Amino acid sequence: MSDARFDVVGIGNAIVDVLSHEDDAFLAHHGMTKGTMALIDADAADKLYGEMSTGVECSGGSAANTIAGLASMGGRGAFIGKVRDDELGKVFHHDIEAIGVHFPTTAATDGASTARCLINVTPDAERTMNTFLGACVELGPNDVDADVVRASSVTYLEGYLWDKEDAKAAFVAAAELAHEAGREVSLSLSDPFCVGRHRDSFLALVEGHVDILFANEEEILALYQVETFDEALQHVRGHCKVAALTRGEKGSVVISGDEVHVVDCDPVDHVADTTGAGDAYAAGFLFGYTNGHADDLAHCARLGGIAAAEIISHFGARPQTPLNEVVAAKLG
Asked: 19, 29, 123, 203: which has the highest count of C-beta atoms within 10 A?
């Protein structure tokens, strides 16, 4: 892996989060259910965006958050995701390159606008989200930069993007390119409902193309349609080279062949927001894996746990303290 230009290239949804402070009356006026996330269309997104108070805009998206975490660890990252040539597209492009991530995807000049997650924070600190997926779901095989994939030790695929046929084709094309170049492929299952919608095709993807699988307990149970975590462990063994399974406060379990590593979570004084914890875990794990610790999966899991702990200690899905500094303080 030492000959790679990048440690990891992520392929996923390119979303800009727009956060504003609103009152309960604003939520009621727009028919929102507090604390939930709803998918909305372009017209609804434009209308809501226009009526929100002055907000803060920052780049998001699951795989993009993982690559941001990798960069914060000191890793070399790249990201492939679709934006439009609009104002939010420029925000996403600026933000991801400003943290040192290579972003080669050409912005679309027509079609849907850049994806956005409109987050309304009420005085009780509750987040209510409305997401317009926009341009990012139009990503297809032509958006996969073959040179970047070949130059990356690991290609990391975001399960959320698996809904569209073009995106599925892009994932398979990227996986084949990676393996032809002697690289590895990783997948995050992303969400149990996503798994439920695409179980059979996810299974085929995992068994045919994936070396490193990330999933939480709900997701892995949904994938194999079993009742217990131990049953899921038996199913996933042998389906991919490495399975890194997170269990919240129980830590994580990493399986590779006959190896099983049970790693405690990293304690935090206060859990403020669990959004992005899985993304951060993948960032820490893959940083370790691509930087000399592929033979020490317990260490990779420990790095993942440290990264996840930093994320859940504050609001927002990206690090507030550089993760390389957090790791240095924890491990010396």
From this structure: 19
